[in-house]
Amino acid sequence: MSRQTPRRVLRVDSSMRYSGSQSRALTDRVIERLRRDEPDLQVQVRDLAEPGLRFVDEAWINANFTDPADRDDDQKAALARSDALVEELRQADTIVIGAPIYNYTIPAALKAWIDMVVRARETFRYTEEGPEGFLKGKRAIIVFTSGGTDLGGENDFASDYLRYILGFIGITDIDFVDAGGLAFGADERVAAASETIETLAA
User: Fold this and answer.
1) Domain for residue 2, yes or no?
2) Cα–Cα distance, 149 to 93 (Å, whole number)
3) Taking the CB of the first residue and of the last residue of the chain, which one, N or C, has fewer CB atoms within 10 A?
């Protein structure tokens, strides 16, 4: 059955580099691959290297835990960027995340983005049976790149976290594009990652 509206992709880049970034280059390829199956694909880009992404602070926490009906203008302003990021995530069918590994885990900017979108009453809730994510039915594709860390290796503190936190908000259909350990044979590992991308379908 054909979709009545084009599929929406949210692309999240978290590399602080533009020139020479393997995660950005491979994420480009993921988008190109998805477009081959669906030329009308709509892509929203959230580039975390750009200024404007705030970190959680006291004002944000106080606003977030105030009932929406009781928030004053300052509290609404404190949550405005977070609200926009959550809405981007809600609107997406597929989330493509470029995740380079910095010091064995995700970049600070990617963690800041996660803190902005993993919000009680917005993307998850606690029930008597445990937490329930609201973003079910979505797919995530994570482009994992690193110099010296292998995906799933003993010094990989990123992939399990990303899988868990996405599942926490309801996103359990997750594919990894593995370009880890580039310091030990970049050409071969990028080629293997490119082959994985070719197996992806929109």
Assistant:
1) no
2) 29
3) N
Which pLDDT band holds residue 4 (cuts at 50, 70, 90)? Answer: low
* Cα distances (angstroms) measured from residue 81 to each of 4, 22, 86, 97, 115: 30, 28, 9, 19, 12
pLDDT bin (cut points 50, 70, 90) of residue 50 is very high
pLDDT in tens, 10-23: 999 999 999 999 99
> How far is the C-alpha of 38 from the C-alpha of 6, rounded, in Å?
8
**146 within a domain of the structure (yes/no):** yes
Range of the domain at 79: 8-199
- Give CA–CA dist 194/202, Å, rounded: 16
Q: Give the number of domains in the chain.
A: 1
Output the domain CATH number for residue 189: 3.40.50.360
